[in-house]
Design goal:
By secondary structure, this protein is an all-alpha fold. It contains 14 helices and two strands, in the order E-H-H-H-H-H-H-H-H-H-E-H-H-H-H-H. The protein has a two-stranded antiparallel ribbon. Helix 3 packs parallel to helix 14, helix 4 crosses helix 8 and helix 13 runs antiparallel to helix 14. The model has no long low-confidence stretch (mean pLDDT about 90).
Length: about 350
């Protein structure tokens, strides 16, 4: 039998994004409170041992450590949903018209990016070094923040992710055409080719300070998985898939060879786990996660900047206090994001739709 994601409703996608965003916000807060680290942009086998040492059998440290080390993997669900949503939107078209396809998405992406930069400025203009802020705005608008480790870590927040998504948007029509023509065979060939390129290009990219996992190539398998799930009904998650995924994910935390496979295996495991949740009957909790999914990009935008306000007060004390502080931070992020979403949908979105209709 197996689990199929051939038909996910918009509400179910919002629930997945809402749950994922909760873990991302908690991760982004907690990983600054300890020295555990995470294998997000590069691999270091010491980090998993740092996690064991940090927890040290102390239950109060358990959640802090797990959120710190594993929380960033939930970003892969957004990449999966992006591939899934694009493929589903174009499923009745053999070849998406490139101009009609790309212009609305670029406009919406830049509208959200510019909105985020403006909010960022008004929140922190007093603390800005204008030279730093000018460099930040320039690299963000020109979409090259993800071309160096330095800029990713210097401009803390989601700014590199916009560049990654734009790259996947540009590449999507070619991938869609290949999958539409070669079906499941093309799907597995493209994933295999992605990993061949990752292994070949990672040493060269590292030499030039370019993070493979900050760019499209490092996350192409998860994006393809999203496309494949909606294009091929026979693609299911059986135990023959789940057990190897679990083994690979475990090994990827200890052995560098398996590290490139960690993102895809984590995505498969998370989707398998969330399948039962997204199919639960609608209730208050599910509606709450759906709302978080709707405002998830605003949470993504504001989460990093708000840490500058919340961490000095909420990241102190014993591990249990820090954990409670992270949930207070999450609550503040949700409230601010909801207000920003109302402002955006009332002011910015009508302008973007008007511009799209003209073009």
């Amino acid at each position: 039998m197996g689990i199929s994601f051939y038909s996910i409703s918009k509400e179910q996608k919002d629930v997945i994004k809402g749950i994922a965003m909760v873990f991302i916000v908690l991760h982004n807060f907690l990983h600054w409170t300890n020295a555990v680290g995470e294998n997000e942009m590069n691999f270091d086998s010491n980090r998993i041992y740092n996690l064991f040492e940090f927890i040290g059998g102390d239950v109060t440290r358990l959640f802090n450590g797990l959120f710190s080390y594993f929380g960033f993997y939930f970003l892969e669900l957004f990449i999966f949903i992006s591939g899934y949503g694009l493929a589903k939107y174009n499923i009745n078209s053999t070849t998406p018209m490139y101009k009609k396809y790309i212009i609305p998405r670029v406009i919406k992406l830049y509208a959200l990016l510019i909105f985020g930069i403006i909010v960022y400025f008004f929140l922190f203009y007093r603390a800005f070094d204008m030279e730093w802020f000018t460099a930040f705005v320039t690299s963000s608008l020109l979409m090259y923040n993800n071309f160096s480790f330095y800029r990713i870590f210097m401009f803390i927040g989601p700014w590199w992710y916009f560049s990654l998504i734009l790259q996947l948007y540009i590449l999507f029509p070619l991938l869609y055409k290949a999958l539409d023509r070669y079906k499941e065979k093309g799907f597995f060939v493209l994933i295999a080719l992605s990993y061949v390129l990752i292994f070949l290009l990672t040493p060269i990219a590292n030499k030039w300070d370019v993070p493979i996992y900050g760019n499209f190539l490092g996350h192409l398998p998860e994006f393809l998985l999203g496309m494949g799930c909606v294009m091929f009904e026979r693609l299911k998650f059986t135990w023959k898939v789940m057990i190897p995924a679990m083994v690979v994910f475990i090994l990827s935390n200890f052995l560098e060879f398996f590290f490139p496979f960690s993102f895809l295996s984590a995505t498969i495991l998370m989707l398998w786990f969330f399948h039962a949740i997204i199919n639960m009957p609608s209730n208050r909790i599910m509606r709450a996660f759906k709302l978080l999914g709707v405002i998830s990009m605003f949470m993504f935008l504001i989460n990093g900047p708000l840490r500058l306000y919340t961490m000095p007060y909420l990241a102190r004390g014993e591990p249990l206090q820090v954990l409670l502080g992270s949930f207070i931070h999450l609550t503040i992020v949700i409230m601010v994001s909801y207000m920003l979403s109302l402002l955006y949908y009332k002011t910015v979105e009508p302008l973007t739709l008007k511009l799209i209709s003209k073009l």
